[in-house]
């Protein structure tokens, strides 16, 4: 790795862009925000971009011929171009959705029991008994439940790649899991719990060898790693804006053009049509086919500003910075024998998400104690319940990093963590149980 | 920190009346879908109408210290008590837990339940503390005992 983590001075300058980081919580404790995997904070540059849209351009894009609408359309489509460029894509292959969950549902919905009579090529998306959808045991519910529903609708069979004790995909049985019957492989790029980076290259190669489509959940990789859709070689890729310094209410689906063109619409209504008669309608080409209704214009513009912000910092440096914090946290946790990390304990193929359990203490209680010191982490199953079942834990505590986090914040987490056994580890009580 | 009173820690480490027992008229399974906490609860009632008595509350619970302590306190405060009294205890617990910290709880009514008063100031934890109690009222409903449970939101605690 050539990129270096941000210096303390650089982090201080970054933090100054995020007003919320200056606030205190719970009786005056400085906020230590280690929950960017759930949602990141927004820099003033993003807030300003949204405000500027409402102050100067506000109107519905792709409607009307008045000056504001034209300018709003240009800004909205300019945002699409900017965001597409960030992932190495062409603008027309980028669909804006409400969030990544909607993007993944959009793809799953395109598959059905029979081809759409009005959409040439849609037989590619017809599934039935005997067909299989392959997911993994580490998927977020957003990349699992839509596929369960698809299988229920079509009679296809859901299969999944198991996870090893180290928190990596167990590909030892891939030959029997990924076969001629497999039509879709839906997999997460970077686990939102374990931090694991999955071997996309290998999965794409194996999936394409049997003509299966690869759907990549890139929610935890696009904000942190730098992603190029062509280099990855996947067929669909989904991510959300709010985890990458952007506004809530906007997500992105990228898809191969010929596939998007062969897909039926998900939500229908205004904007996504070509012609409408009382009997039936025909649909606009992608991406408009998938953007029914007045779109989230300000959010798209805000997300483009977020992309500018990330580019100015440098995605490689963001990744290096987050890995340095991860390394410090993993070392700190390893020094505490009453803590067990769930996921890879080294930096190999890893992102800046660390989940752990404290002996005999439920994650909710760990999170509550940390919160008492102003340390915000996520507790629970993180929308990956099957993964937690696999590790036989009801819940984990998860710290996740962003560019604005400091070494001091990692230490603050570790210090606060040390009070957990002090509260719950009363030997008198423990000995009695 | 003040949330974790000694009583809560004791109940969560040594839950009272834990385990599933027979006989019972109703068994329910409730989960807290945000954190995965689960409780299976059985209810055994003897007698009818005003003479009904909570003979046994048995349970198998998996969860945080707040939910574990709360179900332990539930069992302790209801087993052997008239059903009407158990419902008064439930109403008092619920009132305290949903008071946002205004209601400190009456030890005469809810016993060790007062240790959970601090939970009311943490909205994310109120569901943890109510999990067992909502299971209890659901089991009561399913057991067929027609007792008016006022102010109970059937949606709450049942995902």
Give the arrangement of secondary structure elements:
The complex is a heterodimer of chains A (433) and B (159).
Chain A: H1 8-16, E1 24-25, E2 29-30, E3 32-33, H2 44-57, H3 67-86, E4 94-97, H4 100-110, E5 132-136, H5 145-154, E6 157-161, H6 174-177, E7 182-188, H7 200-209, E8 213-217, H8 229-232, E9 236-240, E10 251-255, H9 257-261, E11 273-276, E12 281-283, H10 297-313, H11 315-334, E13 339-342, E14 353-358, H12 363-372, E15 375-376, E16 378-380, H13 385-390, E17 396-400, H14 407-424, H15 427-432
Parallel strand pairs in A: 3-15, 5-6, 5-7, 7-8, 8-9
Antiparallel strand pairs in A: 1-2, 4-10, 9-10, 11-12, 13-14, 14-17, 16-17
Helix pairs in contact in A: 2-10, 3-10, 11-14, 12-14
Chain B: H1 6-13, E1 26-32, E2 37-46, E3 53-62, H2 65-78, H3 83-97, H4 107-110, H5 123-143
Antiparallel strand pairs in B: 1-2, 2-3
Helix pairs in contact in B: 1-2, 2-5, 3-5
Function (chain A): Catalyzes the removal of elemental sulfur and selenium atoms from L-cysteine, L-cystine, L-selenocysteine, and L-selenocystine to produce L-alanine.
Family (chain A): Belongs to the class-V pyridoxal-phosphate-dependent aminotransferase family. Csd subfamily.
InterPro entries (chain A): Aminotrans_V_dom, Aminotrans_V_PyrdxlP_BS, Cys_dSase_SufS, PyrdxlP-dep_Trfase, PyrdxlP-dep_Trfase_major, PyrdxlP-dep_Trfase_small
């Amino acid at each position: 790795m050539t990129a270096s983590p941000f210096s303390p001075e650089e982090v201080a300058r970054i933090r100054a862009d995020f007003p919320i980081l200056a606030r205190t919580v719970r009786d005056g404790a400085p906020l230590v925000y280690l929950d960017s995997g759930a949602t990141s904070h927004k820099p003033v540059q993003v807030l300003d971009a949204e405000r500027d849209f409402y102050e100067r351009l506000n109107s519905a894009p792709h409607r009307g011929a008045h000056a504001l609408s034209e300018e709003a359309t240009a800004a909205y489509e300019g945002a699409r171009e900017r965001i597409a460029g960030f992932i190495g894509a062409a603008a027309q292959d980028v669909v804006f959705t409400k969030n990544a969950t909607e993007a993944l549902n959009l793809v799953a919905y395109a598959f059905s029991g029979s081809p759409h009579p009005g959409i040439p090529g849609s037989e590619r998306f017809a599934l039935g008994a005997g067909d299989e959808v392959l997911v993994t045991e580490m998927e977020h519910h957003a990349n699992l439940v839509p596929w369960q529903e698809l299988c229920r609708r079509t009679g296809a069979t859901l299969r999944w790649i198991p996870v090893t004790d180290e928190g990596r995909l167990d590909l030892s049985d891939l030959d029997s899991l990924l076969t001629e019957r497999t039509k879709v492989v839906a997999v997460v790029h970077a686990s939102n719990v374990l931090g694991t980076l999955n071997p996309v290259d290998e999965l794409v190669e194996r999936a394409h060898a049997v003509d299966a489509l690869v759907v990549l959940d890139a929610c935890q990789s696009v904000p942190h790693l730098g992603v190029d859709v062509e280099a990855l070689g996947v067929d669909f890729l989904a991510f959300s804006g709010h985890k990458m310094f952007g506004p809530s209410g906007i997500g992105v689906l990228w898809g191969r053009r010929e596939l998007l063109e062969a897909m039926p619409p998900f939500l229908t209504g205004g904007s996504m049509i070509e012609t409408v008669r009382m009997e039936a309608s025909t649909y606009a080409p992608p991406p408009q086919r998938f953007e029914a209704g007045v779109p989230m214009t300000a959010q798209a513009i805000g997300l483009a500003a977020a992309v500018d912000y990330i580019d100015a910092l440098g995605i490689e440096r963001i990744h290096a910075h987050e890995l340095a914090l991860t390394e410090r946290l993993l070392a700190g946790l390893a020094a505490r024998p009453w803590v067990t990390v769930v996921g890879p304990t080294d930096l190999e193929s890893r992102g800046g998400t660390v989940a752990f359990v404290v002996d005999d203490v439920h994650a909710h209680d760990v999170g509550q104690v940390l919160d008492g010191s102003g340390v915000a982490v996520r507790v629970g199953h993180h929308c990956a319940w099957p993964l937690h079942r696999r590790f036989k834990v009801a819940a984990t505590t998860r710290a996740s990093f962003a560019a604005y986090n400091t070494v001091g914040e990692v230490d603050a987490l570790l210090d606060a963590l040390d009070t957990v056994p002090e509260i719950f580890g009363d030997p008198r009580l423990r000995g009695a149980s | 920190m003040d949330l974790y009173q000694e009583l809560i820690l004791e109940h969560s480490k040594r839950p009272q009346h834990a385990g599933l027992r027979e006989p019972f008229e109703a068994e329910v399974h409730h989960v807290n879908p945000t954190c995965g906490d689960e409780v299976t609860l059985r209810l055994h009632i003897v007698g009818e109408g005003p003479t009904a008595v909570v003979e046994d509350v048995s349970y198998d619970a998996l969860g945080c210290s707040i939910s574990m302590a709360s179900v332990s306190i539930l069992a302790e405060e209801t087993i052997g008590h008239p059903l009407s009294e158990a419902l008064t205890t439930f109403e008092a617990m619920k009132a305290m837990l949903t008071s946002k910290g205004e209601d400190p709880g009456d030890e005469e009514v809810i016993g060790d339940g007062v240790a959970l008063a601090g939970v009311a100031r943490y909205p994310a934890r109120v569901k943890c503390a109510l999990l067992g109690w909502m299971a209890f009222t659901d089991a009561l409903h399913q057991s067929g005992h027609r007792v008016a449970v006022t102010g109970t939101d059937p949606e709450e605690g049942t995902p």
